[in-house]
Amino acid sequence: MIARLTADVSLRGAVLLGAVLAALLAAPWIVNDYLLTVLIIILYFAYAGQAWNIMMGFAGQLSLGHAIYVGLGGYVAGILFIRFSVAPWLGLLAALPFATACGAVIGWLAFRFRVAGVYFAILTIAFAEFARIGFDHWDFVNASSGLFLPVAQYAHNDLWLLRGNPTMFYYVILGATALVFVLCHSLMRSRVGYFWLAIREDEQAARAAGIDSLRYKMYAVMVSAAVTSFAGVFYAFFYNNLFPEQVFSISRSIEIMLGPIIGGVGTLFGPILGAFVLTGLAEALNSVIGAFGLDLPGARQVFFGICLLLVVAVLPHGVWPPLARLLGVTRGAK
Amino acid sequence: MTALLALEAVSKRFRGLVAVDHVSFAVPQGSIFAVIGPNGAGKTTLFSMIAGALAPDDGAIIFAGAAIQGLPADAVCRRGVARTFQTVRPFPALSVEDNVTIGALLHRRDVGAARQHARMLLRRLDLFEKRDRRASTLTLPDRKRLEVARALATEPQLLLLDEVMAGLRPTETDRMVAILRALNRESGLTILLIEHVMRAVMALASRVLVLDHGVAIAEGAPEEVVRDPAVVQSYLGADAI
Questions:
Q1: Same structural domain, B203 and B215
Q2: Residue B141 lies in a domain
Q3: Is the minimum CB–CB distance between B77 and chain A shorter than 8 Å?
């Protein structure tokens, strides 16, 4: 396994990756609580972006409603925890199939009836909106007044119940991000991964090469939904509250996509790099604005907009591919 | 020789237009069979029906003893019919090797084994040196050979070639002809080609079907067909012979 993972990584790449990983592992001892929280948010977006990238970057299916899987994951685990005292990791075991099934329904409806491209993207928005409005009126999940998890004492960490201080949450999301990175790495080099790429590149040609595109597109949506649902569980237990208006909102879906788009769609490091660039710069911007004693609501959104414009105009394939060449860690097609 | 592929009174209409009208023919196992005809004769429609991109309105398409008409394109390919596209469609952002590896993965679970097979085919089609290049950076003749390699990687019994010579210079045409001949001779691969380039048809095909306005107007050995008055009239022009 390890041998296969490292087989096609250059020495330089391995050293760089090791250094980044070491820095991330050491971070809680180095940075203050505020920066640690920023890092948690960055890793959260890296994780969710990586999950979104499975669908869009690998299989070419644009989801503009990925917040639905975050929301469902969070709500399933949250409700189970509050109402039935089910630990979040067990809640995840329920959230995973739930989100996967939801992805399967959306995928099947779309692919079976040949809804593709932009229309598929609109369908994903529609489902996220259905979920938002539905949960907003569903009393069992406290409707629009939201779901609150009992806030823990930061004095002791309970990893099993996900109650604890930011350091614990940091390691949880770091572990999850590392795990999903490994998962995506092996998916990319697997038979399914190649079939996804073929479908992304040219679905008709992929079918002519014998690939059952409906089936493999379904896999992409389901895997992506399943992976994303953990982001929801994490979100619920980290923030301790869930409001349909927030978790299912389209702006949440867009935030998930921004990282991979800026970092590089379809690349392994793109979603991670994108999350660091975006959230890191946005937080820096906040501090600068704060230092000048200004109050500029919406500055973050404007900043995201500018970043997106710049990347689309200057680096249409994202920041990672040219950076990888610069660092000399690139491989693959020239 | 038994027929690997047989079309029985296959028809396709688009609204009022009859694109293919009760066409029947049989492609013997191990042969190279060409379909020729002027533009708009229904060649590509016929081809699309065999490849599963279009379903015929009437008639039967029998491949290796089983009816395949109306099956989706991927199912047709899995049964052993691989195709190229008239306008080439390699996977543009992927490397040449990955393009062919994807085809080879159809009947292989292991990526390493598929890559091995892909490399063998790339050598065969003179693309091995370019295996790391992005498919979109290749020249047209290279892309055409890449499509053939990807199709071959799915290990077909029947290879469908849609105007694979179009846009090639005479020397490149000869090279493609040599490759296809060798494939047919060495592995017994059956080839059905739709072709405009008569030079290639004459060099390759053992049997030719001529379509005109959706109707099969002649079938036979290439030398006979090109002398057929109806064929000369409709397609080749008097000075072609």
A1: yes
A2: yes
A3: yes
Q: What is the tens place of the pLDDT at every residue in B134-183?
A: 999 999 999 999 999 999 999 999 999 999 898 888 898 999 999 999 99
Residue B56 lies in a domain: yes
Q: Are residues B165 and B73 in the same domain?
A: yes
Residue with tokens 């996804």: A196
Please indicate, yes or no, whether residues B67 and B165 belong to a single structural domain of this protein.
yes
Select from A197, A210, A334 the Cβ nearest to the Cβ of B132. A334
Q: Which residues from A are below 8 Å from B72, CB to CB? A: 207
Co-location of B178 and B236 in the same domain: yes
Which residue range is the domain that position B212 belongs to? Answer: 3-80+158-240
Structural domain contains residue B87: no
> Does residue B76 belong to any structural domain of this protein?
yes
| Stronger pLDDT, B103 or B38, i.e. the higher one | B103
Mean residue pLDDT across chain A: 89
Angle between helices A33-53 and A213-239 (to 10 degrees): 160
8 Å CB contact of B109 and A191: yes
Shared domain check, B71 and B26? yes
According to DSSP, residue B154 is labeled: T
User: What angle (nearest 5°) sits at the alpha carbon of residue A60, between those of residues B151 and A197?
Assistant: 35
Reported ipTM: 0.91
pLDDT in tens, B23-69: 999 999 999 999 998 888 889 999 999 999 999 999 999 999 999 99
Q: How many residues does chain B have?
A: 241
> What's the domain count of chain B?
2
- At a CB cut-off of 8 Å and minimum separation 6, what does A87 contact? A81, A160, A161, A162
Contact indicator for A219, A192 with CB cutoff of 8 Å = yes
By DSSP bridging, strand A147-148 and strand B81-83 are unpaired
Q: How many CB atoms lie within 10 A of CB A302?
A: 11
Give B 186-225 residues with CB within 8 A of chain A: none
B171 and B69 within one domain = yes
B positions 43-62 inside 8 Å of A (CB): 51, 53
B124, B177: one domain: no
Question: Is the pLDDT confidence value at A293 over 80?
Answer: no
Regarding whether B17 and B38 lie in a shared domain, the answer is: yes
- Tens of pLDDT, residue by residue over A130-170, are 999 999 999 898 888 888 988 756 667 888 888 888 899 99
Nearest to A88 by CA among A22, A188, A162: A162
- Residues of A whose CB is below 8 A from B82: 208-210
